[in-house]
UniProtKB/TrEMBL annotation:
Compartments it resides in: Mitochondrion
Gene Ontology CC terms, in alphabetical order: mitochondrion
Entries under Pfam families matching the protein: SAM_Ribosomal_mS41
Keyword flag Mitochondrion: yes
Principal subcellular localisation of the protein: mitochondrion
Annotated stretches, region: Disordered: 98-126
Keywords of this entry: Mitochondrion
SMART domains the UniProt entry points to: IGR
Name this polypeptide is given: Small ribosomal subunit protein mS41
Transmembrane segment boundaries: none
Organism, scientific name: Cutaneotrichosporon spelunceum
Domain Small ribosomal subunit protein mS41 SAM, residue spans: 37-96
Family (UniProt): Belongs to the mitochondrion-specific ribosomal protein mS41 family.
Length: 126
């Protein structure tokens, strides 16, 4: 990575992904897997279809919600973790990726407290 940065700096060309094109948000459109916005929110999961379903009846309103950022999602009662995931998924979708390629199930809750060697299988070891 550093070799690429060093080589590009000698030519005067930036190779970072923080360009205006990468930062631009593209509008959301229908896809073969998701003909309606409610289908997309259902596939994304994380209660997006229940909390945002009434706010986005068509693709234009979903695109406006996506362009406004996380504030309207917070007003709808989504947690910051849910908002981050939904925004990430909408960004991937806006760049043309099919929802089946990037949707991930949520992490299951921890079953064992603690991380160190003193706690093994839920029991404290001396």
């Amino acid at each position: 990575m550093f070799a690429a940065v060093r080589a590009s700096s000698s030519r005067g060309v930036r190779t970072f992904a923080s360009t205006a094109q990468a930062a631009a948000k593209l509008p959301l459109r229908a896809h073969a897997e998701t003909p309606m916005p409610a289908d997309l929110l259902t596939k994304i999961g994380r209660n997006a279809d229940k909390k945002l379903g009434d706010k986005v009846p068509d693709w234009k309103s979903l695109s406006e919600l996506y362009l406004k950022g996380t504030k309207p999602m917070g007003d709808a009662g989504m947690t910051p973790r849910e908002r981050r995931y939904v925004m990430w998924a909408l960004e991937r979708y806006s760049h043309g990726d099919a929802p089946s390629t990037f949707i991930r199930p949520p992490k299951p809750p921890k079953k064992i407290r603690g991380w160190g060697p003193r706690v093994q299988n839920g029991k404290r070891v001396k």
